[in-house]
């Protein structure tokens, strides 16, 4: 025998009690740090997505995201009819649920359909609206294609029916795929209201807005936040987030 002895039951109980006490003290603090980090990431993500959309608009001189951005050819302007307008752009991730108060806001919860609802990646990262061939926005390399104004990059937009070579898709506007928010849900942007001349009714919005009101409705990026419920109306003049949602205003239109 070497004289060593094991730990008594009393000693083991004391040590376990101390460990449990320390864990009880530190766990809430660690959980708080994790929550804070997630919220900070959501705030930054909506800001980055909003900045990418603004860059896209500046490069393309468009006031819409388009389902078919080339009308089948890069040498002619796309149609900007309401039927060719994307209404909602979303990231990867689950579709968050609507809170009880927002049950009528079905605008937010539609699935990607390759038309009115498309992915942020398709328009801001891939230049592939609806992931379909022949629908891309015109690139700078397309400016020499025979078109109204030929290869004159200074050809006036008003003279070319609003399709001018200096304006083109110069992305990617994001560094990589648009991941879900920190709680696994998708980001969403109500891009339907970028277009001040829209006349088609946008389904699933509340607040008593008619098409005549669209020019003053705000466009913003939305995350449903920690409770994973959407609490924010999709059509607002002076957008404010509901409950614990996160938003970043892209365009305040007339304001």
Sum up the structure in keywords:
alpha/beta, five-stranded mixed sheet, 255 residues, two-stranded parallel ribbon
Record the SSE blueprint.
Layout: H1 9-60, E1 88-90, E2 97-98, E3 117-119, H2 120-124, E4 188-189, E5 219-223, E6 229-230, E7 246-251
Parallel strand pairs: 1-3, 2-6
Antiparallel strand pairs: 1-4, 4-5, 5-7
Descriptive report:
This protein is α/β, with parallel strands linked by helices and 255 residues long. The chain has one domain. The protein is built from two helices and seven strands, in the order H-E-E-E-H-E-E-E-E. The strands form two sheets. It has a five-stranded mixed sheet. The longest helix has 52 residues, at 9-60. It is elongated. The termini are far apart.
Beta-strand proportion: 5-15%
Coarse structural class: alpha/beta
Query: What spatial form do the alpha-carbon principal axes imply?
Result: elongated
Number of domains: 1
From the alpha carbons, calculate the radius of gyration and give it in angstroms.
Answer: 25 Å
For the terminal residues, how far apart are their CA atoms?
87 Å
Order of helices and strands: HEEEHEEEE
Which whole number gives the mean pLDDT?
Answer: 82
Counted by DSSP, the helix tally is: 2
Helix content: 10-25%
Please tally the β strands and state the result. 7
Question: Main sheet?
Answer: 5 strands, mixed
Largest beta sheet: what is the strand line-up? 3-1-4-5-7
Low-confidence stretches: 145-161
């Amino acid at each position: 025998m070497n004289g060593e002895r094991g730990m008594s039951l009393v000693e083991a109980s004391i040590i376990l009690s101390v460990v449990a006490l320390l864990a009880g003290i530190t766990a809430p603090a660690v959980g708080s740090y994790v929550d804070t980090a997630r919220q900070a990431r959501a705030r930054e993500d909506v800001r980055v997505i909003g900045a990418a959309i603004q860059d896209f608009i500046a490069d393309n001189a468009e006031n819409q995201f388009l389902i078919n951005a080339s009308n089948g050819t890069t040498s002619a302007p796309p149609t900007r009819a309401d039927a060719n307008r994307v209404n909602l752009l979303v990231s990867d991730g689950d579709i968050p649920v609507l809170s009880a108060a927002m049950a009528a806001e079905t605008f937010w919860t539609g699935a990607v359909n390759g038309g009115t609802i498309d992915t942020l990646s398709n328009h801001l990262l891939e230049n592939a609206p609806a992931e379909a061939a022949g629908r891309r926005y015109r690139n700078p390399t397309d400016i020499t294609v025979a078109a109204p104004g030929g290869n004159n990059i200074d050809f006036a937009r008003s003279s070319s029916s609003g399709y001018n070579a200096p304006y083109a898709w110069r992305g990617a506007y994001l560094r990589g795929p648009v991941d879900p928010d920190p709680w696994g849900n998708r980001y969403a942007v109500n891009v339907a209201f970028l277009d001040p001349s829209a006349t088609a009714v946008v389904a699933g919005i509340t607040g008593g807005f008619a098409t005549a009101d669209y020019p003053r409705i705000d466009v913003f990026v939305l995350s449903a936040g920690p409770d994973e419920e959407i609490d924010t109306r999709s059509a607002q003049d002076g957008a404010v987030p509901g409950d614990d949602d996160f938003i970043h205003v892209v365009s305040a239109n007339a304001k």
